[in-house]
User: What shape does this take?
Amino acid sequence: MGKPHGQGRYAALGRARAGLRAVRLSTLLSGILFAWGSLAYALDPALEVNQYAHTVWKVRDGFVKGAIFAIAQTPDGYIWLGTEFGLVRFDGVENVPWEPPPDQHLPSTLIMSLLAARDGTLWIGTFKGSSRSTRN
Assistant: This one.
């Protein structure tokens, strides 16, 4: 048995309209990104690459051992690293393994995701699928 007369045309028209909306939306988003892209730079374009300095931290120098799965920076400037062995707070000079308060514990030491909230709360997602909130 075939489709009722006209049903195929309406379905095709609906798909065409949805496709047109997607094209319009992507064009709009591209325009916005293009306009804002000229306002944001990761590096100062007036400086040469050799005018920047960087420091390398290595395991043999006491840096984090193991894989780093997540990175977040809280408003106070600390960089938090979620590793296979736990959570580490880095201040740009040294790293300090984070220990939860005595009455709390993380479900796993394998930290898979981190989210720094504006209020300073650090949300910690572990391998066991649950997350915990703490104030740093």
In short: The longest strand covers residues 68-73. Strands lie at 68-73, 79-83, 86-90, 95-97, 111-116, 121-126, 131-135. DSSP finds one helix and seven strands in the chain.
